[in-house]
Specification:
Blueprint: H1 2-16, H2 26-37, E1 47-50, H3 59-65, E2 70-75, H4 78-91, E3 96-100, H5 103-109, E4 115-120, H6 125-133, E5 139-145, H7 146-153, E6 160-166, E7 169-178
Helix pairs in contact: 1-4
Length: 184
């Protein structure tokens, strides 16, 4: 029920403020939410950071699905940040917080290693991968095109990598990077 309320709110808000494609329908948003929910089985940390939250199609469904986890939505565009704040209030998501600003600014202040960065369509995924090398986060989960992932795969060879197919999408995958302890 809460997920339907979120999608209804997003569609209504999108009519006055462009958050997602104007051609978005309930069906297309349901598909995007379903893809987001595929991430649930790959998150092992208590904190999830949504890089470039936009219309909230990653962070909000995960906040609904993971009431025990803390979710940070990061967004630089003021109109999108306002929408996200309103959505958090409307849905009563006490586990979600909005950070208005770039992910770099949030990560500069961030000091909790047991966290996961998530992103979809983020323009600079190599920057997000650097947070893995710096050991600022334990995991990075990307929903992205195969071509975009191939561009960074060789630069992250020392980090555990897994690729997961997204059903019914031959051009998108889930790419997980994970810092793992060498201790046994």
């Amino acid at each position: 029920m809460t997920m339907d309320l979120f999608i209804d709110f997003l569609l209504a808000y999108n009519k006055k403020v462009n958050l997602v494609s104007r051609q978005s329908t309930r069906e297309t948003l349901d598909l995007l939410v379903a893809e987001t929910l595929l991430l649930k089985k790959f998150v092992s940390t208590p904190l999830i950071i949504d890089a470039g939250s936009g219309g909230g199609l990653l962070g909000i469904p995960l906040a609904i699905s993971f009431p025990e986890k803390k979710i940070i939505l990061t967004e630089t565009i003021h109109k999108k940040a306002n929408f996200l704040k309103e959505a958090i209030l409307l849905l009563g998501l006490g586990n979600a917080k909005m950070f208005e600003g770039p992910i770099q600014e949030f990560m500069h202040r961030h000091d909790f290693y047991e966290s996961t960065i998530i992103a979809r369509g983020f323009p600079k995924i190599e920057m997000l991968a650097n947070y893995m090398y710096e050991k600022k986060v334990k995991e990075l989960l990307l929903i992205s095109s195969v071509d975009k992932i191939k561009k960074i795969q060789n630069t992250v060879v020392n980090i555990r990598q897994n690729l997961y197919n997204i059903p019914s999408r031959n051009n998108l995958i889930i790419f997980k990077l994970e810092n793992v302890s060498r201790e046994t």
